[in-house]
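2024-03-11 09:14:02 INFO worker-7 job=invfold-0412 stage=load source=structure_tokens
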């Protein structure tokens, strides 16, 4: 197969134009041509308003070697690498019980799927509700303000990423094709094929919810089990013969979050794929002497601008309507050396109340697949490290998050606190909108968002947004809408794991974003595959486990 790189065409081109470009680049006729597909597609807006799509194409042609030999174009090469993914059990240790996966976010779902596909019949535990029930709970919360602490934007099938923009790009260096496998599985279970080649793939919250449900049903069809409303509230260990008498997993204590009825579940292996908001579980792990460490993360605000303003900045004036809502990514360094950057940018999206605890309020961004809302929103966040946390110790970052969220809840009197950037700079409350009406899921209240933060964070946010105005005209306009608090950017702790991916308790595998090993849907799903591989390299699959 031949790979053609750097094929550039105007954004208004037709499919036939692309095919003709392939012919002329390879210097072939239709009789030599068999099939082709897009490997990558990106938008080149460096010379706006002249906009181009840039393609990488894989073409299957006759007389491949002859065509390459006579073609002097450096962008025409033989495609030699294999992008397939394969995982099969090679372990020799005998499992007595079915492996357990704790959490059904991307890490847990893809780990559970991989284990089920290999014949391990995993049991997936989810403290929250199924997708169908969870969507109703979230909509009810946004409408009435009545929070279900176990079924909300953070907890439930699909994890926190379900109510987001559904971005599927990642910066993880992928030498094992796990990222490609994740995208292939997304397509298999309902995502559009374009995510396989788009440079910045996304599917939106609406499509993501359907994909998650389909993956769950596939896990069940392959012998797995998914239990909702089931929270792990205790971990019991034994002395491990295999690991020189180190503690090893023996049993999990479970609790039904609706009835508070408990049960014990015996297991040799559990994957700890909890989300970054499972604060009570972090506390349990800390009390259970499972080794963890505090880690840096970032906090800040959501900022809203008109999507038309962002489109013009990124595409130029009078850009074709066929172009998608434009995105951006911005970074700055403050005078005191702190990083300020945009995160989880949602074109045509909504700011959502993403709270999971009573009297504490957090926000996030969300888009539907069409990205057709009037506003663009993004987190603007400041890096914080353990040295900044008022409380020291392993859970100091968690306590800092809670402190900010309590201040946000108080400032908005239970609603999302909102402020105009001009008033943020003056440190005075806002009372109404300017030209930009907030686009939010959940009730909001005008006030003083700046008052939520320690002054060093507020100062960095002001400096960062002002700097971003030099890169996107109008970004620092006085009527830009700020809301807070964006506190759940990543996990405040890392659950330590060794070279076999096990924690200080053998048989317990930390996994994904909550454990501190991922940052987004795709990287979390990739880590889920990686942990499933580790389990399969140690343990054999089986036919008759005891904890059926």
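2024-03-11 09:14:09 INFO worker-7 stage=emit residues=548
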């Amino acid at each position: 197969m031949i790979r053609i790189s750097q094929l550039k065409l105007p954004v208004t081109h037709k499919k036939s134009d692309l095919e003709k470009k392939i012919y002329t680049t390879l210097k072939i006729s239709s009789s030599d041509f068999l099939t082709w597909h897009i490997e990558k597609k990106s938008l080149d807006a460096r010379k706006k308003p002249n906009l181009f799509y840039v393609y990488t194409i894989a073409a299957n042609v006759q007389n491949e070697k002859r065509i390459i030999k006579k073609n002097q174009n450096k962008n025409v090469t033989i495609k030699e690498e294999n992008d397939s993914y394969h995982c099969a059990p090679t372990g020799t240790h005998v499992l007595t019980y079915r492996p357990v996966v704790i959490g059904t976010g991307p890490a847990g779902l893809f780990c559970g799927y991989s284990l089920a596909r290999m014949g391990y019949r995993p049991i997936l535990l989810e403290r929250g509700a199924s997708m169908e029930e969870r969507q109703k709970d979230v909509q009810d919360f946004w409408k009435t303000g009545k929070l279900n602490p176990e079924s909300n934007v953070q907890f439930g099938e699909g994890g926190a990423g379900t109510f987001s923009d559904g971005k599927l790009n990642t910066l993880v260096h992928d030498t094992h094709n796990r990222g490609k496998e994740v995208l292939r599985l997304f397509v298999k279970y309902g995502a559009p094929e374009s995510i396989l080649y788009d440079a910045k793939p996304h599917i939106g919250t609406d499509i993501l919810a359907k994909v998650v449900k389909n993956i769950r049903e596939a896990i069940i069809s392959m012998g797995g089990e998914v239990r909702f409303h089931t929270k792990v509230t205790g971990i019991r260990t034994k002395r491990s013969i295999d690991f020189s008498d180190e503690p090893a997993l023996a049993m999990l204590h479970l609790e039904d979050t609706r009835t508070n009825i408990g049960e014990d579940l015996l297991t040799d292996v559990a994957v700890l794929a909890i989300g970054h908001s499972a604060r009570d579980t972090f506390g349990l792990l800390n009390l259970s002497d499972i080794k963890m460490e505090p880690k840096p993360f970032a906090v800040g605000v959501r900022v809203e601008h008109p999507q038309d303003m962002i489109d013009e900045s990124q595409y130029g004036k009078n850009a074709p309507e066929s172009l998608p809502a434009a995105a951006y990514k911005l970074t700055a360094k403050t005078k005191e050396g702190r990083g300020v950057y945009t995160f989880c940018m949602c074109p045509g999206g909504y700011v959502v109340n993403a709270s999971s605890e009573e009297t504490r309020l957090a926000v996030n961004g969300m888009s539907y697949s069409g990205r057709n809302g009037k506003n663009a929103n993004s987190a603007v966040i400041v890096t914080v490290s353990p040295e900044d946390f008022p409380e020291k110790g392993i859970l100091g970052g968690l306590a800092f998050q809670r402190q900010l969220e309590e201040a946000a809840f108080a400032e908005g009197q239970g609603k999302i606190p909102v402020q105009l950037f001009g008033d943020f700079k003056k440190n005075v409350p806002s009372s109404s909108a300017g030209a930009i009406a907030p686009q939010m899921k959940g009730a909001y209240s005008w006030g003083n968002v700046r008052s939520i933060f320690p002054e060093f964070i507020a100062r960095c946010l002001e400096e960062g947004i002002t700097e971003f105005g030099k890169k996107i005209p109008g970004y620092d306009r006085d009527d830009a809408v700020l809301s807070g608090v964006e506190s759940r950017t990543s996990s405040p702790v890392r659950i330590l794991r060794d070279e076999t991916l096990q924690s200080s308790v053998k048989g317990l595998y930390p996994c994904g974003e909550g454990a501190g090993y991922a940052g987004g849907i795709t990287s979390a799903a990739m880590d889920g595959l990686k942990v499933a591989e580790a389990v399969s390299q140690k343990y054999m699959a089986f036919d008759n486990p005891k904890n059926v």
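2024-03-11 09:14:09 INFO worker-7 stage=report msg="The chain is about 25% helix and 25% strand."
2024-03-11 09:14:10 INFO worker-7 job finished
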